[in-house]
Structure formats: structure tokens, C-alpha cells
Amino acid sequence: MDQFKKIIQVAFTYMGTIVGAGFATGQEILTFFTQFGSIATLTIFISSIMFIWLGTKIMIFAHDIGAKSYEDLNKLLFGERLGEWISFFILVVLFAITSVMLAGGGSIFHEHFHLSYQIGLWFTILLAYLVLLKGINAILIVNSIVVPLILLFTVILIFTTIQSPNAGNWLHRTAEPNPLRVWLSPFLYIGFNLSLAQAVLVPIGSQIKDKKIVYWGGIVGGLGIGLMLLAGHFALSAQMPGITQFEIPMGMLIVDLGKAIQFLFLLVIYAEIFTTFIANIYGLTLQIKQRTSLHHQKIMIAILIIGYFISQIGFSTLLSTLYPLFGFLSLGWLWMIMKTKPQV
């Protein structure tokens, strides 16, 4: 039972790291899959197989080489010098996304809970600090609480959509997309998400001693990600094409379900932002610690403080440059993960 519990914790942490705020709002599923019509059901199936295969592979690599941070994995994939540069670029992108996650947490407090934006920022920072003091075990526990909430929300969406007259759209809706975009999108999605998720997948793989737990945790987590992608696609397809006009498509699917469900939805979005936030900070802390002699607690506090100041001014200009660049860089990273064989 203890081994089974650990497998579920690893699986839920993998799912919670991948299933970020973009997933919860529905924008990522809509952009990378649903807009292309019924063919998205096939590309989601392919994505699911790759999440199972490559997510598990990342953690197994980390376990086998005893990686201290994701830089050790990138050095294995790309060699010493190029691996260092790629790790540094990932560090910059992670920092950018971490600042945006913090700003997102503050926005939810301001726009939906009608509290001060600053209160939202400081609450998120303080909660993250308290969780991160406990290390990787606390991240595993937090995701063990948050991911079941996400799964509950997913089940609600499925049962709501089944009653829709357009519930079959996920299998039958036609579109006229560019074939290159259709088949490139899932690989961009997988590469972007996994290359960032390595910040937490690597320490999980290296710090859990039982390789079977790592192996089965990766398989169960990858399968869970695939099922949630499919559920989101199923729900969004039933509302196409009108749903594309909204910034938070998932939010429009629950407006008729009452205030209690809407409040739960907001909690799920905040929880997903928070799990991504703490996972990124944990990965950044390990990476910077490997490059400096600073104590991990000082590094963590510095990241939180700098992130707070950045969240005051927004980050749209930097992100508009980083996201496309990182998306295509992630394809090269994805190819290296696919072709690299485990060390004997």
C-alpha cells in the first residue's frame, strides 16, 4: 500500500505540473487541439502515448544518473557546453512563467474574490514559501490534494457535456486546418510542457529510490494527462465554434451550473496556478544552487521577492518573444529525449 501511495503521488505531481493554468482555462486545449476538429482526437491519443513514454523516460534518466537538477539531464542529452546554455535558457523561461503565475494568483484574488491584488500576491508567496520549506515531499502532498480537485472538475464537465445536443462533435466535427499546423501542434505542446516540467520531474526521479515507483508513476501520470486532454477536448468541441471568442473557454461551460460550481472552478484554477508556481520555484532553486554556493532557502526567498516585483509591471513583451522561441527550441529538446538511450 505504501508503494501504491507513492506511485499515485508521483503520478499526481506529474499531472499537476503539466496541467497548468492554460489547461484549466481551456486555451491550451483549444489552441493545440480542438480548433482542428475531430482529427484532434487522434493527435490527443498520440500526445498521450508520448506523455506516458517521455515523462517516464525523463524520470528514469534522472534516477539512473542521480541528477541534482535538470541541468544534469540536459548535459546528458546535449553535451557539457550546449547543455549548460540550454539549461540557462530554460531557467530564464521558467523565471518568466513563474512571475506570470504569481501575477495570475493575484488577479484571481482581485477579479473574482474581490480582494486586493497585493493580498493575492503575498498570500501566494507566503503559502509557496511554507510548502517549499518541506521540499519535494510537500510538493507531492500538495499535488495529491489538488489533482483530485482537477479530476472532479473534469468529471463535472463530462457529465454536463453528455447532455449537450452537440456532444458528438469531438468525433464528427469537420474543419479545414493546415496539415502542417495540425501535426506540428501536439509536438510543440508536448515539447514545451515536458521541457519545463523537467524542473520537477528530474528531482522526483532522482530522489525517489525505488525505480518501480518512478516507472509506474510516470505511466499513470501520462495516462491521466491524456484522459484530461480528451475530456477537455470533448467538452470544448460541443461548444465550437462559438467558444473560441472567450478568453477563458472553460469558464463559459460552467456558468449555468450555479455559484458553488463556479467557486470550485476558481479554486481549481488557483490551485493549478499554485502547483505550477511551486514546481517552477523548486526547479529554479535546485538549478541556481548547483551553479552557486548559496543556501537553498536564500535562493528561494530571492526568487519569490524578484518575482513579486516583476509581477507588478507585467511580462507580456518578454513572453511574446520567449514563447515562440522556446516552443521551437523544445522540438529539438524533444527529439533528443526520444533518441537518447538509457545508460547501462
TrEMBL record:
Looking up InterPro entries in the UniProt record yields: YkvI-like
- Is Nucleotide-binding one of the keywords UniProt gives this record? no
| UniProt keyword terms in alphabetical order | Membrane, Transmembrane, Transmembrane helix
Q: Which domain of life is it from?
A: Bacteria
The answer to whether the entry has keyword Transmembrane is yes
Q: Which residues cross the membrane?
A: 7-26, 32-54, 85-109, 115-133, 140-162, 182-201, 213-236, 260-286, 298-315
Query: Under what name is this protein listed?
Result: Membrane protein YkvI
Recall the taxonomic lineage recorded for the source organism: Bacteria, Bacillati, Bacillota, Bacilli, Bacillales
